[in-house]
User: Fold this.
Amino acid sequence: MRKKFIVTLAVAMIWSVLLSTSMFASEQKEKKHHSWEVSIVVDLDANNAAGMRIEGLTGDKQGRLYTSDLNSRRLIRVTPHTGAVEVLTVLPQSATGMVFDKDGNLYMASGGGPGVDGVILRVSEQELKKGSFTSDKVETFAVDVDGANGLVFDRDGNLYVSGGATGNIYVITPDGERTVWASGISADRPTQPIVVNGLAFGRDGRLYIANTSSGEINRVSIKKDGTFGAVERFAKDPLLYGADGIAFGPNGDLYVAANERNAIVKVSHSGKVTEIAGNNNEGPLEFPASLHFIGSTLYASNFDIDRGVNSPNSPGIGASIAKIEFVQEHSNEK
Ligand SMILES: [Ca+2]
Ligand SMILES: [Ca+2]
Ligand SMILES: [Ca+2]
Assistant:
């Protein structure tokens, strides 16, 4: 059963209030509504409303989505327009963030933990073509990346890896050479120690970094020699508490999965923060963790853990892929 949820922003209304002398006339003229519609593409755990945990989300050139269940370690592929779900393999370690390189090979972050090394897993395009494959076809691309969570490639094929609560950003060259940049980014809230999470490159060439703890997006320039410039704050707002996966939309706005708020938040070029969708623990957003655009359609992985607005996580649809679409409605009332 698909659930639909509509969020309406009536920006024009706010301006009309400011124009007090022509308030009524202005309202009537500017009946333009921008709506975001959220629906569920696929329920990955049809029998349960909680329990299965998916964090990562990415897509291939054929428009198929990939995620993974942290408990069973299954690597899952979803075809959004048919709702088809394939289990490709069982990963040797549970994985979070995911990304493809330009050649169609898939990389997955596995942050490790006590006694388990953080690694980057890799599956070749050839294996992915087969549909399903054995766990021994999953390679270890890089080691010693504790806390590994968000992943993004730059134009030269270097892989950037966020290190979660470590505050580190790791950079891995195409040859597998690894360097560590200590971001110096700190946690505002002791209950949430994750300070470097979702990563994305902007049109300005800068690396954008989500700070889950402080509800903040920072950005940093990468110099020609590969070293990092100074960290600059792009946006900070309580709406961004739980900032996890981030993705730039077609027009250059940044979209943020505010996981513990069960919300999707937009940050404009100028740093203006707006919530575009949000709901209680009944969904359709249930601890949204990662974001991925296919064209102008935004997809989110519902991690559905018991935290923040999503607590308790017992109601709702549970582990699933949500679709967030922009709907523009015009009504020329006179
Ligand atoms: Ca994440
Ligand atoms: Ca379910
Ligand atoms: Ca739930």
